[in-house]
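Working notes for the structural subgroup meeting. M.R. asked for a predicted model of this chain before we commit to crystallization trials. I am recording the input and output together here so anyone reviewing the notebook later can reproduce the run.

Input as submitted:
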Amino acid sequence: MFKKIASIALVAAVTITSSFAADKINGAGASFPAPLYYDWAYNYQKDTKNKVNYQSIGSGGGIKQISQRIVDFGATDEALNTLKLAKDNLFQFPAVIGSIVVAFNVDGIADETLNLSNENVADIFAGKITMWNDAKIVADNAGVNLPNQKIIVVHRSDGSGTTFNFTYYLSGSSESWKNTYGTGKTVDWATGIGGKGNEGVANLVKQTPYSIGYIESAYKDKNNLSAAVLKTASGKWVKATEENFKAAAKYATWTKEKHFHSVLALQQGDTSYPIVAATFILLPREGGEMNKKVIAFYDYAFKNGDEAAKKLGYIALPEDTKNMIREYWAANIK
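Returned structure, recorded in token form:
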């Protein structure tokens, strides 16, 4: 369950065993993990009295604010490469794994009953497939009553790591998309209406008949939306389920030397959901004591937050990955 909060920023705290006095830690960035960070923060404050204020402003905003040292930590769904991290003097580590679903609002078509090939998803967002009863969609959906209605595309209006991972998937699925639009936190959309954050896209899809959009799976569940069945990289139909998210996540390759830089979309395996993504935390390399307070919060979450992650539709990091992150902290956070 999502915690009810007074504003978009919820507060959390440092572990009971911490030697720090009560502090307020400010973070901002990705909307993708925000529901989970709010939950972790709520329990962290309840247990330890220390507070974390997190603002869901999108990955682009999170990168900008930590690069300008406006906040104590940034959050992004697009992992930064070693050159970018060095340029902005940042450390980086993953916090949790999630998934992006293609949500739709078509009366009479239930959740997980609409098949959309990856190529057709790319053509819809490129404005090439414009009607719900287009022959290409009909061919994959025998027995489904597809209406003679225009498809309303909903996309992000802000710089977004969710958009980065979604367009990475589209680029890997369609040469036409790759050559025309490519991969990025923002792209020059051919069609559609924009919503700010995963929250904004989810609300627009929910309110707009015959719409389709891409959102983190937790927002699909919160808003009681329907998700399309997609294809694995090997061409098998696959539903947006925890088991299929985990099937993709197990192929993650992390290295401390590359500051955990990775992309998890379109992994191998016949049950690997095609749009799985990790989300990352950015810290200033000169952060000193404040960095220690931030990692105390995430260490608390790693120890106590797996059940919350599962309930909200995320995949907790494997224990060996958490231990690798702790080694990274020990080597870099002084």
